[in-house]
Predict the structure.
Amino acid sequence: MDVRRPSFVSCLCSIRFIQVASFSVLQPSSPLLFRLFAVTILGFALGGHASIHAADLSDAEAVFRAGDYDAAAQIAQSEVDRGVWNEQWSRLLIQCQMTRGDYAGALGTYEKAIQRYSSSLALRLIGRDIFRFNGMNDRAKQEAALIVQTIQRSPSRYLSRDNMIAAGRYFADRGEDARQVLDLFFDKVRDVDPDYVDAYVATAELAILKGDYRVAAENLATAQKLAPEDANIAYLASVAWQSSDSKRADKELARALQLNPNHVPSLLLKVDEAIDRERYDQARELIEQVKQINPRQWQASCYLAVLAHLDGHYNVEKEMRDQALATWGENPEVDYLIGRKLSDKYRFAEGAEYQRRAIIADSGFHLASFQLAQDLLRLGFDDVGWELAEKVASDDPYNVVAHNLVTLHDSLKRFSVLSRDDIYVRMDPREAEIYGNDVLDLLADAKRVLCEKYEVTTNEPIYVEIFPAQKDFAIRTFGLPGGDGFLGVCFGRVVTANSPASQGARPSNWKSVLWHEFCHVVTLEKTRNRMPRWLSEGISVYEERQRDASWGEKMTPQYRQMILSDELIPVSKLSGAFLSPPSGLHLQFAYYESSLVVEFLIEKYGMKSLRAILDALGEGLPTDAALESVVGPMDKLDVQFVTYAKERAEAFGAFADWSTKTSLAKSSGSMTPEELLGRSRIYPTNYPVLSKLADAQIASGQFAEAKVTLERLVDLGVVSGSRGGVLEQLATVERELGDTAAERRTLEQLIEISSDALPGLERLLDMARHREDWHEVRRLAQLVLAIHPLRPLGHEAIADAGERLGDSDSVARGVRAMLQLEPIDAAGLHFRCAAALAKLERTDEAKHHVLRSLADAPRYREAHALFYQLTHENADEK
């Protein structure tokens, strides 16, 4: 959830966002760069190209790109020893030595090479890192200063493609204007030589650093055409696509490792992903693979520090951090990487502490500053977090995430803030007027119920932010647009959520969403943010169902099939199901399966045992150890749960025939309703046949026949609350047939198991109005408002029912909400509100609304009469 850092070989390991604004749009000036290089760039544009590599150099580089670093080093060493006058042999040898962790050898090679090629900026840029990783930080700074001095002293001598790219990378690394780095260096090289691969690679690296993944992907596509066998380009493409197309990203990463099984950045990216998926054994195996290539590889040690922390081995964590800093003690990226991964695991307090260390090491390291800002915002320290984010956005204007957050902050300042019981809710002002109090009621109830159940006391404020625009939710939550499918996210004491306004015509039940997220608040508080994702999500979905039988994920025909096939995921690997799922269905199934695990744990071991597991996690025990303290070995839990889940799946539609026999599957898709009907007589309980038959009958208008088929499916027990499921289909058919009583029974069955059956609720509401069953109207209206409070229907029903039942308070609340929804007859609504408030003896409020009514309709007689009554009664009282 963040932008990465400037050392490109090491920085691009787990970026998760897509771009919102190209950094090419932003154009702060950099006069120093212009003065220093304007003449030089003109000279380059008119000058020639660098010499073409000899065939044997190309062959050696191919050996390096394939991952045989020792063989490439032997070839390069031989050529360097022969005294061949070509600095690229020295650079290739240094690359091999640095990749293998031979930093002393690289230093020796560099010191000899720079004496021969003293004007090579490409070599000097490498030299800076060589000095760093030999613990010679002062020499590294001197070498960096010599880059500028070299250019100033003899600009014409460095006019080669390699040196131009090196100069651009140097100035980008020190924070110069990114747009001008592109214009003055990378674009100039590309203009002169459109086939020079490194120009596209350097542009992509800079774009990734700034969060502009579209620009990165475009440049890398060109680079891949020019150098299809380069694993590093495939790796960068994987990073560029990771946030917007995970399947393509995986494909690119697989290609990178196919081209070079020893490509360290790609292996580190797999480590990062394995940690995200809680596949810690796999992460350790990959780290060991990296260490075999380079025993001193610092990122590998950082990841070991993260794993040690997650295991509660804090002494090992310190040892691994020290190991990561052993070669370059001032490297701010060590603490940045460890802290970022801890924050990815919701250890925001620990992550923030690491970012503070990184900033102490390098106060100008913007990525650590911005990560700290994000950590603080997720911990609820808004004042400091926003101030720091604004500073980063000012200092680094091409940081897209910082730019987005600061822009969003201006919008947040206009939000209303509601509070109760140390819960603070930020909402759009109009939405706050409409259902803000209902939000507070729900959250206060969730706090009372769930804190008591899980024996948690919250001592700090809890912040809930509800966004009417999905883009704003995504920026606040992830930093960039995207995150489609997320309804809410909890960071601990901070919750972000999409409002119904952002979800189209059929939004999800916002009450269910907020109950789910507040359950995360409670369980994360109990475990100090130390719990696997599957358990956190599983408890929240389970508690949705406990609160209301219609809430939360439940068994469906699709879930039944997935459980009884090979798609049921072992508990020990369940967190990985939430990352890069094959489809939206698989992601929803991960939520359901996780809740089923929780249900199993509670049924078999009791609620007390579940709390004990959470307490153990809070004390720092790894997930497996915490579970094993209650249920025994993980392999035992895996086996027990499979049995439990399959029993639950087989109980769903137990009387149905679920087989998909070849004779059915191959031909039924193209059958007519009559042919399917004949097939159903042969297989009268077969779900696939009956389901296809019902679809075909409805499509052809055979509603009476479809009703018989759908009722058979209901009798077989295969109903669910899914949109477009059997019950929704049956209700539609019954309406077409005019069987209102049957339709009502079906819809009532549907809303008992579905939290967001809005069309069904609206239909039931209409029926209740016609029956003049005002108590039922009020009940159904409240269910409608739990899904879509931003449409007049539910509020109007509340007000109408209130008038019939003598509940003036309901009338006033319903009408006030309608007034926020751009009504046609505002004058009439103000009058209704004034009349209700008058009955409640809230005279001042009633006067306000009756005057608003008269302002809109000056000849409104009933309003005049009410105003007279209110002022007359007031005068009599005086």
